[in-house]
Design brief:
Strand order of the largest sheet: 3-4-5
Number of strands: 7
Number of helices: 9
Organism: Streptomyces lycii
Pfam families: GmrSD_C
Structural class: alpha+beta
Largest sheet: 3 strands, antiparallel
GO molecular function, one term: endonuclease activity
Distance between the termini: 24 Å
Strand content: 5-15%
Radius of gyration: 17 Å
Keywords: Endonuclease, Hydrolase, Nuclease
Protein name: HNH endonuclease
Order of helices and strands: HHHEEHEEEEHHEHHH
Amino acid sequence: MSRTRSTTSPRTIYARRIGLAGGLAALAGTVLLSGPAAQAEPPTPPSASTALTQLNGLTVETEGSGDGYSRDRFPHWSSQGDSCNTREVVLKRDGENVEQDGSCAATGGTWRSAYDDGVWTQASDVDIDHVVPLSEAWKSGADAWTDTEREGFANDLTHAQLIAVTDNVNQSKGDQDPAEWMPPNTGYHCMYARMWVSVKDAYDLSVDSAEKSTLGDVLSGC
């Protein structure tokens, strides 16, 4: 059974969940680039049991048509300070022994893609995936946000929304939801479902019935 979509405005949701993220992201851009203090993966999402509770609280409705969608409506990659943008911060965070030049571009390091267990030593082989794709977000409620709010979503370092993965695997995912695509690495399905639900919950985005069913099955088996 679907619940009524929250009447809380996207601007209020953004202020609660993204306003703080903006400050933390800027701080993260400094801390994560300091070497030993760097995080090795995205922020840890809630447990599977908590994610199930969150999933059951999401609005269930048919996805929007996508009319009016453009990646330009979700500006990225934004500046995170110290000449670094969001992509470079995530590359530093998710890699090992990452070296950067004076413009913050990654010039060396090792990245292991959790989606397929691929290991890469060239940053050009790595994409930064939006766990909940931008098009998916648009069709699930983000079409009602402002471009500034969508920029916060597209550059969110506070939730488990951004992760460095093999480029062609990310491209095969496209804008598909978990009912249509899951990481080739089956051992990562539980984590992926937890990440997906935590992001949708944080941004009050809806799910469709097939998406909810798949996520529920995965989380119940964690």
